[in-house]
## 1
Amino acid sequence: MTVRGVSWIIIILLFFLAEIRTIKGDTVTLTTWCEHKVKYLGEYSSGTYRYVTLTEAQAECLKRNDCGGITYEPLYSGKYTLRRGTTLHTSPSEEISWQTCSKTAESPLTLIG
């Protein structure tokens, strides 16, 4: 397989693994989520903050200015909750948290070049 073919596969995989956030010049910034087991983030976000699925919670978190991440509450509510805090704390109740991590990749147009 050519280098161009491999590059296209990598770009396509990145698009499937993360939501495209910005495209500037020759780079694409993708939003990915980092998982932190047995950790929680403090203080609930404003408005509706409990969601049934992680995907739904992630989409809502990205829309808000006061969302520092997501914490899953397995014992308390069984829901994914939007949190204002950005500092991870050790959870006594096996909570799991997610925060955004940005990745950058060359755009497909540059790879063809």
Note: The CA atoms of residues 53 and 80 lie 7 Å apart.
## 2
Amino acid sequence: LNLACVGGASDLAMRALSPLTSLTYLNLTDCCNMTDEGLRALAPLTGLTSLDLTNSPWLTDEGLRTLVHLTNLNTLDLVRCLNVTKLGVRALAPLTSLINLFVPPSLFDDKNFPTPC
């Protein structure tokens, strides 16, 4: 389901998606009105394998912690989620099916990711 650039997609809209438990793909790029509450509403979508949250400025580490129930998730995009920190990304460790994780560049530093020779 591609809801990219649906600016009006809000927490209420995310609650409306919760019965779609067989959904495997959800693109919420630029859904700028969604908060952690909306992310919590996605917890029943345990069939999700791909979730794109690019440019979700109101999402925080607290919201990311609610994703640990999405055990089939193999792709998660958090680029331009400016309130996500390393702690939030670490909370995703139980998602052992996660293969592709896209995070804000601000989470990288030279100590953890040195420049290649």
Note: Helices lie at 11-17, 36-41, 61-65, 86-90.
## 3
Amino acid sequence: MRQKLGPKTRTGSIEKWVEVLTAPDYEMYELFQKWVGGSDPVQIVETMKLYVSLLMGDVDDQYKASFGNDPDLRLNIRHVGMVVATEPGKCPWVELQIVQIDSKPVNYVGRKTYYDIEGLDIFTGNIRDFKKTVQFDVAVHLTGYADPA
């Protein structure tokens, strides 16, 4: 007699941590400089750190909520550091021209999305240097760039 197989069961819970390094560009620094209303770089960067940490906390909460039906599965997002461009030209990966694919912006969930392969390669190379001092799983470039269109 053939035995009916049921779904596989897990033995124990699974918990994973994703460590995120963020890299805000100079445009974002300028945006926060306007919000803070001053020119003290320490205050500007501290405000940026607070904002990005709150943002990462929200992402962490979203993941926790999405796995709410499975108490044995946990995905945790942790913001481990920030590389801030406090002067123009300090983000070589965004100094390149933003390109559009086939002369049309890529559309992602109704939003215009641009990408630049050469810029991504430069970003990867520059961020890789930080692996020597900061342990992280993924790096995220944050921009204050506003599309003029």
Note: The chain is about 35% helix and 20% strand.
